[in-house]
Request: fold
Amino acid sequence: MGQILDVRNMVPKDRHPRIFDTYKELNPGESFVLINDHEPKPLLYQFQNEHDGEFEWWPLEQGPQAWRVRIEKRTEIVRDRSLTDYFQTDHKRLDGIFAKFEDSAESGSWGEAAIEFREFRLGLKRHIKAEEEILFPLFEEKTGMHDNGPTFVMKMEHKEIHEWLDKILSGTEAENSAQVSEGKTALMNILADHNMKEEHILYPESDSFATDAERAQVIKKAQLL
Ligand SMILES: [Fe+2]
Ligand SMILES: [Fe+2]
Reply:
């Protein structure tokens, strides 16, 4: 799916121009996977400065040997992007990776399944971190609801999600169909309801409380995790 740009063997000064050329050649909605040998933070800063609101940045692997990130040219350029749009897009993206993982696991392609599940797990862990460290504190500050509001419930559910992520990973690595299938069912049950509550309540409320500048900051910080 899409192209891969591996810059690990390129001389450093050629890397950024090559990456931006590849990005510019994308049609809206297309993406490529960048493979690098270090964390590409300076690159992300450059994207945020030069292509604000135009791209998606979704890490698939974060070291220690390789860093892989999917860089997408968005179909629409939205400068004042809503938090709902950003986080909901990530839910959908993660659902897509999970569906591929399910297919691979069901057909016994355990090597593929393990790669896909690690991408899913990394993505969901980053997503949860962005919620807990960036979005929820803003929501709590604006509403004054801490231990008695929706973020409290979401954080409890995140704990369960983390446990199932670990169980499914170990099941996948052990090529244990029964363990994977038990984990899949449990995780999907929690996530369906969890994501729905976030998409219908928490994200839209956060959008209504946050200023344009705060929304932009949340998204930029979340990309940097
Ligand atoms: Fe969440
Ligand atoms: Fe979420």
Summary: The chain has a mean pLDDT of 95. Strands lie at 3-6, 31-36, 55-62, 67-73. The longest strand covers residues 55-62.
